[in-house]
Every structure is written in structure tokens, then in C-alpha cells.
Design brief:
11% helix, OB fold (Dihydrolipoamide Acetyltransferase, E2P)
């Protein structure tokens, strides 16, 4: 696991602790992206990534993370954003035993976001082509990733057999 993240930021309540849900803030395809901490297994340095023959364009390949074969998914391509240079740093997310490595340009901090008023669509894949939604703030936008939608989209690509099983 990569070293500690920058200090957490976010609104504090009268009692002191932050309010909202914890997210890891990253940069991906020139955008600020927030990944829910609840779905994050670790921030890892990717080793060798082996290509997967006849794979979708968003599947960069597979890698071995401490003895577990994990698909490496280009989240920007999966969401239809412009391609970027390959990165060696990745967020590793999981749902049960299913794991994905999502390379990102950089990891900035942990931040608490209260985005309940702008909750995800009932079916993010059906209602939106992107498994993320934009949260507009005074100083710009943050794209909130719906990891369940990302995992569902990848599973639709028939990768379940390669994802940490």
C-alpha cells in the first residue's frame, strides 16, 4: 500500500467529526474524481500488466496483486472520457471477492462529501452512460464514482472469472 494520504478535509459538525461520506479524491483524465472509501481496498503501485486478448478497449489487462489476479480497468475509457497516459498508481476496489484496479493520475486526499441531496439514479447504467455523476461546487466539479455501477459494467464484460477468484 502506498503511504498516507493528505489530511482529510470536509465540513465538520458541531461535535467536531466530519459529516457526509468519506471519499478518496483523485485526478483522472484531467477531472477531479471521488471514489467512496467504503469500496476502496487499497491504493497500490501496479506491477506488470499483461494484456488480455480480444478484451474491450477499457480493459488494460490483468496484474498480480499479492497473489490475486486482478483486472486493470481504464475508468476514463469506461466512462467515455479522453484517454490518458498509463499510470502506475491505482485504486483497488472490491465487491466481495471481485476486485478491480483503476489507474489514476494522482491521489490527493480523503474528503467527506455530503451528496445525499444529489443521490445516484436508481439505475446509473440505464439512466446514464456514465457510472459517475458530477457534483458542482463553487471552485469546480467533482465526479462522484458509483463503484457498484463500475463493477456491474465490468461484469457485463464477462470478466468475473478473472477478478480475484
Amino acid at each position: 500500500m502506498i503511504g498516507p494520504l493528505a489530511p482529510a478535509t470536509g465540513a465538520t459538525t458541531a461535535d467536531g467529526p466530519p459529516s457526509g461520506e468519506a471519499y478518496v479524491l483523485t485526478t483522472l483524465a484531467g477531472r477531479s474524481v471521488a471514489m467512496p472509501m467504503a469500496s476502496l481496498l487499497e491504493v497500490a503501485d501496479l506491477g506488470e500488466v499483461a494484456s488480455a486478448p480480444a478484451a474491450p478497449s477499457w480493459l488494460l489487462g490483468i496484474t498480480n496483486l499479492r497473489g490475486v489476479v486482478v483486472p486493470v480497468v481504464d475508468l476514463a475509457a469506461l466512462m467515455g472520457w479522453p484517454a490518458e497516459a498509463a499510470s502506475r498508481r491505482a485504486l483497488v476496489v472490491r465487491d466481495g471477492r471481485f476486485r478491480l484496479a483503476l489507474p489514476v493520475q494522482s491521489v490527493h486526499a480523503v474528503r467527506w462529501l455530503d451528496s445525499a441531496h444529489d443521490g445516484p439514479a436508481a439505475d446509473p447504467i440505464a439512466e446514464s452512460r456514465s457510472p459517475a455523476r458530477e457534483l458542482k461546487e463553487d471552485n469546480g466539479s467533482i465526479w462522484i464514482v458509483d463503484t457498484e455501477a463500475v463493477l456491474a459494467r465490468v461484469r457485463q464484460g464477462n470478466l468475473a472469472g478473472m477478478a480475484g477468484r
